[in-house]
Task: inverse folding
């Protein structure tokens, strides 16, 4: 199985701060995803990347950006955190041979 | 675009009983249907999946059925145990694309 790690389990930031969430995989998969998870809304796609330096907007990209400089690492950036970005953030990696998504443990971000 | 509806949002069963969670989707081109289990404090984990050329798949106490004509698929858990308590997500993917669409989730409680 793919191991997906996320830089922090819990994070508390202030409004207006720049926030970096990092995701690292231990395999060589091209496709990586960032989701946010909110009660009753399921998982919503923020951004995804299908190769180094490639990125595509998901369903809710506003207020976020991403960076993929190395294949194993996909970063989510909140340029200026706002309280409505308080959420659980999940990174996922997809095996193109099986279509299976492997998720990291999540980062619970609180913006005060 | 694809829309996935999942029911019920909450399900409570007695240990040993069966649990059934249903999902409907809208895009007939969708061809991959995974189910994920999310335990408290963890990321979702794949528990079973089915592809459009198969009507049913079973793995020990877990089974998934797919009705492509009616565009719905279901997760069946038999002989439930307290450790089955978690949030379950259905998902839908057209493997020609990148985006997996998730249901809103079902919180399953198994009472001992």
Result:
């Amino acid at each position: 199985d793919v191991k997906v790690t996320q830089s922090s389990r819990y994070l508390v930031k202030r409004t207006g701060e720049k926030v970096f969430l990092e995701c690292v995989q231990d395999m060589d998969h091209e496709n990586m995803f960032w989701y946010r998870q909110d009660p009753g809304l399921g998982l919503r796609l923020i951004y995804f990347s299908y190769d180094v330096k490639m990125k595509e907007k998901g369903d809710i990209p506003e207020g976020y950006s991403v960076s993929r400089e190395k294949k194993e690492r996909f970063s989510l950036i909140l340029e200026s955190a706002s309280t409505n970005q308080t959420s659980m953030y999940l990174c996922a990696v997809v095996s193109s041979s099986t279509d299976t998504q492997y998720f990291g443990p999540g980062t619970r971000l609180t913006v005060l | 675009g694809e829309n996935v509806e999942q029911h019920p949002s909450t399900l409570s069963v007695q240990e040993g009983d069966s649990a059934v969670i249903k999902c409907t989707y809208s895009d007939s081109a969708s061809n991959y249907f995974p189910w994920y289990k999310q335990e408290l404090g963890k990321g979702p984990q794949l528990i079973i999946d089915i592809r459009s050329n198969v009507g049913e798949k079973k793995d020990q106490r877990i089974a998934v059925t797919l009705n492509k004509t009616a565009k719905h698929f279901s997760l069946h858990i038999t002989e439930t145990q307290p450790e089955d308590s978690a949030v379950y997500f259905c998902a839908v993917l057209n493997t020609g694309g990148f985006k997996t669409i998730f249901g809103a989730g079902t919180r399953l409680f198994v009472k001992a």
In short: The mean pLDDT of chain A is 93. The two ends of chain A are 36 Å apart (CA to CA). The interface with chain B takes residues 4, 31, 40-43, 45, 48, 50, 56, 58, 90, 92, 94, 99-106 of chain A (CB under 8 Å).
